[in-house]
Design a protein that fits this description.
The complex is a heterodimer of chains A (124) and B (106). By secondary structure, chain A is mainly beta. Chain A is built from no helices and 11 strands. In chain A, strands 2, 4, 5, 6, 9, 10 and 11 form a 7-stranded mixed beta sheet that branches. In chain A, strands 1-3-8-7 form a 4-stranded antiparallel beta sheet, with no helix packed on it. Chain A is globular. In chain B, a hairpin with a 3-residue loop joins strand 5 and strand 6. With 106 residues, chain B is mainly beta. Helices cover 0% and strands 48% of the residues of chain B. Chain B has no helices and 11 strands. Classes of the chains: A mainly beta (124), B mainly beta (106).
């Protein structure tokens, strides 16, 4: 059974960097058949896909256009986890952040395992 | 990005009722659609993928149908644990997008 355990601060000051980590059990971050994602949820934006990292012959990342200039998602193979960094945050980045496994990268993919969610508030 | 529109935004129902939620895509997405259930304070849970395939462990009272731009999620006999918010999500595009949600209330 795959489990995703999130960690990281729940309060970040404006203009600073939001950092979250997702520890994986029951699967490998290096698996070549799935991808590892971050999705956030807020009342104003709903569920919003932010980006993913995945391993095929090498590591790849894809990011949403809305955050592309500010986001980094990195795998950590030594700890079997992946992380999210979102720079220059504003109050609009206040949301519940989820780490999520996706079943594949081909059309028809689905998000089958979710972390518990972390409420991140951007406030001074 | 592909826009997903759900209706209604909320509905009131009783235990034992048959409930239908619709989801419309802004362009054809074949059958590349999933449905999720979210309980308050919890992460979304996958119910259906490929428009009509039931995820392992999900009760058979949940069913999905549709193709192209119009899809439905049906709960054949509403149970107390089904009162939640439901979301559709398209996987036609590499950028996943979700509907705004349908809240099923008592």
């Amino acid at each position: 059974q795959v489990q995703l355990q999130q960690s990281g601060p729940g309060l970040v000051k404006p203009s600073q960097t939001l950092s979250l980590t997702c520890a994986i059990s029951g699967d490998s971050v290096s698996s070549t058949s799935v991808a590892w994602n971050w999705i956030r949820q807020s009342p104003s934006r709903g569920l919003e896909w932010l980006g993913r990292t995945y391993s095929r012959s090498k590591w790849y990342n894809d990011y949403a256009e809305s955050v592309k200039s500010r986001i980094t998602i990195n795998p950590d193979t030594s700890k079997n986890q992946f992380s999210l960094q979102l720079n220059s945050v504003t109050p609009e980045d206040t949301a519940v952040y989820y780490c999520v496994r996706v079943s594949s990268l081909t059309a028809g993919y689905y998000f089958d395992y979710w972390g518990q969610g972390t409420l991140v508030t951007v406030s001074s | 990005d592909i826009q997903m529109t759900q209706s209604p935004s909320s509905l009131s129902a009783s235990v034992g009722d048959r409930v239908t939620i619709t989801c419309r895509a802004s362009q054809s997405i074949s059958t590349y659609l999933s449905w999720y259930q979210q309980q308050p304070g919890k992460a979304p849970k996958l119910l259906i993928y490929g428009a009509s395939s039931l995820q392992s462990g999900v009760p058979s009272r949940f069913s999905g149908s549709g193709s192209g731009t119009d899809f439905t999620l049906t709960i054949s006999s509403l149970q107390p644990e089904d009162f939640a918010t439901y979301y559709c999500q398209q996987s036609y595009s590499t950028v996943a997008t979700f509907g705004q949600g349908t809240k099923v209330e008592i």
